[in-house]
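Changelog note: in this version the structure field was regenerated for every chain. One regenerated record is shown below for reference.
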Amino acid sequence: MTVDVLIVGGGPVGLTARALLERWGVRALLVEKRVELSPFPRSRLVNVRSMEIFRQLGLADTIAAGAFAAEYGRIRFRDTLLGHDFASAAMIGVNAPVPESPAIGVVTSQDRLEPTLLEAADEADAQVRFGAEVVGLVEEGDGVTVRLVDRRSGEETRVRARYVLAADGANSTVRELLGIPTAGPGALGHVTTVVFDADLTGWSAGQPAGVYATAHGSFLPLYPEGGWAWVAPTPDDPERADWSGLVSHALGPDGHGVQADVLRVQHWTTTAYVAERFRHRRILLAGDAAHTLPPAGGLGMNVGIADAHNLCWKLAGVLRGWAGAGLLDSYETERRPVAQLNLRQAVANAKLMFQAQDRRREQLRNGAGADVPDQVELPWSERYFAQLGLALGISYRSGAVLVDDSTPPQGSAQAPPQASRQAAFDAPPQASPHASPQAPSHAPPQLSDPDPDPDYTPTAEPGHRMPHLWLTPGRSTLDSFGEWFTLLTPDPGSWEQQADPSSLAPLRVEELPGEYAEHCGLRPAGALLVRPDGHIGARWTDRPDGDSAVRSALAGISRPAPLSS
């Protein structure tokens, strides 16, 4: 069997990649060594950026319909689940809409998300094979030959793919076969998830949350209609553990009369590392295969979904011939620094949550009451823990981004100064009056510096996600992006000749309402060239002379210069 792309791994990242590639008309096969989708809840927070990607795929409404209501976008700290809050924090962008996005994040269990993603692509164009395990691969010539073993029958088959996208998890077989090392803290601890049924509405209905963090582990409501998970350090002898009894004990003194009906138990290891390479010629790593993050803050799955969004349009361009193979170098250049940034934040989140528990224990040692506990001041501000900067404020610097004269130089801050989030795009970036209207130039081909401000301040500088602005009621700038580049301009008529239909890269021209021009650093005839992943690839503050600027920019982005060694 021969395919354009073999996707290894049927979790959220692999399934998202399959749906994206199908939209591009790329023939893909997804293989997953499990014989079915995972029955465990696992990742549960779908952040606002991931929901923007799912909105582009037409899936956001379906995902939201099966998710918890917005008020569950909160973490509550308690001595026991059946006790009172001693602290609480909102998940910004989940607990309520934010003006910076047309989407809202949700709390939903991974085992509810995955079936929706599986159904998002046509089986005829993007096949899925469960129970197929990768046991070997060889890169040769213009493709990769992968050996698969059917875990039910033992039969071995071979698949020939032009590219392999490995999204096969933290213990990635593909990464191991390639010998790609990882860097980071590594294993942080052994954890057990216990999925159980119990009637706990009397203690949770009035104070909903996506996570109840207690001294005896975390309790997670799984589905709007019921179901719970308890996540705690794995005991010394898990094979003989009384899981129902342990859950009842963790509920606290008032929970001894609660019957916990244990349904499933899963042991896993919390790990923290980033692969030293995301690409090995025709094989590319994504999601947990490329970076594994501690669960605090719910960053891991969302970073992986953004990996797929960044990579799939590049694969499509190379496979369809309008992009050069060098474009794939920009995937690691752009996404590996983002993974490192999120790893640091996830480790910091875990430490902050432990600090909150430590402060509570100090209260109790000093005689604070447990019935109605004093409030603990959390060791972070709402601004620090909101993480909209991580979700929406990431900036890329690579050969696939062309810079203009008003873009900060390499190594400078990649977000404008802090501004209010009360209205979308309150503080527009200032375009240099001397910015050249001619074609932008290449950024140096070096690793990105994506470090955003914890607050997200919209900016239309090249490399950043295009800000959300309403084009018409209910239609965002983000809704104009898809399987094409988008030229956003207040003056589309003067740019029509620039949109040369003979250009290999697909391009659409979209009118940007004139009142947004200044906010985007544009004069009335300026334009933004937005990549299919929604990041700005080039900006012209004014209309350039001649009719080749857009064509040249498309060529520069899709066929960037090779990376220097």
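Spot check on this record: The mean pLDDT is 85. The radius of gyration is 24 Å.
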